[in-house]
Amino acid sequence: MAWTKYQLFLAGLMLTTGSINTLSAKWADMFSANGCRDEPEHQFSHPFVQAVGMFLGELSCLPVFYILLSHDRRRSEPKMNPGQSFNPLLFFPPAMCDMTATSIMYVALNMTSASSFQMLRGSVIIFTGLLSVAFLRRRLLPSQWLGILVTILGLVVVGLADFVSGNRDDQHKLSDIITGDLLIIMAQVIVSVQMVLEEKFVYKHDVHPLRAVGTEGFFGFVVLSLLLIPMYFIPVGNFSTNPRQVLEDALDAFCQIGHKPLILLALLGNTVSIAFFNFAGISVTKEISATTRMVLDSLRTLVIWAVSLALGWEKFQGLQVLGFVILLVGTALYNGLHRPLLARIPCCAAMVGEDSGPEETERLLGNGSVQANGDS
Known about the structure:
Elements (H helix, E strand, L loop, with lengths): L4 H25 L2 E2 L8 E2 L3 H13 L1 H13 L18 H18 L4 H7 L3 H12 L6 H25 L7 H29 L6 H23 L18 H10 L2 H26 L2 H21 L7 H17 L4 H5 L2 H9 L3 H9 L10
Helix pairs in contact: 1-11, 1-12, 2-4, 2-9, 2-11, 3-9, 4-8, 4-9, 5-12, 6-8, 7-8, 7-13, 11-12
């Protein structure tokens, strides 16, 4: 069945805003500006301030939810399901996972390329699959196990591409690239814990997706904003590139924004795009399918990569092409995207019938419920 204009709009919005989310964060990292106290020009390296902006974008989903609910209730026949009443503290543990993972990923984005950042985020299916078996007692299908193995191979190839490119990268040291890649994978472990927590404690309460994302955004925004205060006094030495060499210098970030307002544009691009990305992702799942959302999420990696190459942010690597293709195959196998193709082959139709249960995968990775990462 052909897509309607509205469905095409939603798909385009998700692909565009999802790409802008990563690209705008990387763009902010590439600026240099003077700081406070007449400090010399230095790189804008404030991952925790960027994470606060991302949570502000998620938080904006909460007022949108109440505006839509209020508008729907004025109708003669309301159609919107507000969901069950719930204790908001249910979202606190997954929100803290989201906060930790997002902060780590923004630190890593400063160390590696935008394309590698997006590709390596695909490792989340490995840890989510394993944790769902261990804690949710879910039985993975053979194709899902194969998808995990293929994804591991893809990660190795992408890591190898970064290792090779690191020897002639003008922007990043090889040690920084390797550290950044490892941090991204570490963050995916935390993201997978977040997904399992949401699956175990949150989904059964039938919470509206916009309300769920907004509630997580609220906790993440408040807690991380408060944590910026002690971070201002925690020395971390050469690990930080801000002049005071502390974990996060929010005042320096604001001073740099004042000296170079384009940084604010990049940060606003990140905040606004994450809000629209969550809305578009939820709507794509509702109006089209969770499988379509997975495909679009994979396509945005290609968009980010193409834009980064076009802008000269990184150099073309043949190994990265191979790594991306392998990761794409692994993701497709894990999410069951191979089933419609096999179903058309008579000899394979029966096998596809036995290899059923795509709804289990969609519940955990593609249901659009609380996928708050811009990236999460």
